[in-house]
Amino acid sequence: MLKGIDALLTGDLLKMLCDLGHGDEVVVADANFTTRTLGVGKPIIALPGISVLRTCEALLPLFPLDEAVQCPVSYMQVSDTPAGFRSRLQREVTGWLVNAGHAQEAQFEAVERFAFYERVRRAQAIIHTGEMQPYANFIFKKGVIADSLAI
Q1: Residues taking part in catalysis
Q2: Domain positions in the chain
Q3: Is this prediction's pTM over 0.70?
Q4: Cα 50 to Cα 59: distance, rounded to the nearest angstrom
Q5: Which of 137, 143, 109, 139 is nearest to 26 (CA)?
Q6: Model confidence over 23-66: pLDDT tens digits?
Q7: CATH class of the domain comprising 11-141
């Protein structure tokens, strides 16, 4: 345990986050996600019994989102729904991100299920939660932690 660090953030999870560079992507996936198939060759951090929202609450205060891209937050589009649809959980997570000051509404994008799987194959790590709500899968693109640019 470390003072000031959320107890949910294990040593393995903190190391994985520390090893990510600018533009790297991390997946936060629900309990039913095909993590073993899509996560071959990359770190998989298991958080059984932990929700996606709770995972994001612990993760995002330490993880700056990429300001150099239009949408540093992607979520899996619910199949057979109209454009703009978000599940209850997707609304909770995106709402929390906005309210906590981590992102703006325009920085979220829905990604079709199979296109989402392709993005996961290129991601650097997967955090596999115990979330039981389907389509509760997010990809976060890491930004830069740096001093101000001297001019």
Answers
A1: 22, 66, 117
A2: 11-141
A3: yes
A4: 12
A5: 139
A6: 999 999 999 999 999 999 999 999 999 999 999 999 999 989 99
A7: alpha beta
